[in-house]
Specification:
Blueprint lengths: L1 H16 L11 H5 L4 E5 L8 E6 L1 H6 L6 H10 L13
């Protein structure tokens, strides 16, 4: 289903490029790696989770020593060594 993921990413990028805010809840690391900003919840699932473990760009999250997502995200980021095209912007 990688073709579906690629299509989804194209559509999400188009929405963001057109000025829209997109919030995605996702477990697919390829999608997470494309995010401008991540809020990693955990540390476990269910009753043992729900806390914010780390926030930041994919690169920042991948360097976090507490996040259980970090080591897996780090591998995906190494494989996809393309330069990030967008700079995340946060507004309050």
């Amino acid at each position: 289903h990688m073709a579906d993921v690629e299509l989804l990413l194209k559509l999400l990028h188009r929405l963001v490029d057109d000025g829209h805010t997109v919030i995605v809840i996702e477990h697919n690391l390829s999608v997470i790696a494309e995010a401008d900003y991540i809020v990693d919840l955990g540390p476990e699932a269910g009753d043992a989770g729900g806390e914010i473990v780390v926030t930041g760009t994919p690169e920042q999250v991948a360097r976090n020593r507490v996040s259980r997502t970090a080591p897996f995200l780090k591998k995906v980021l190494r494989v996809g060594t393309k330069e990030r095209k967008r700079t995340p912007t946060l507004s309050s």
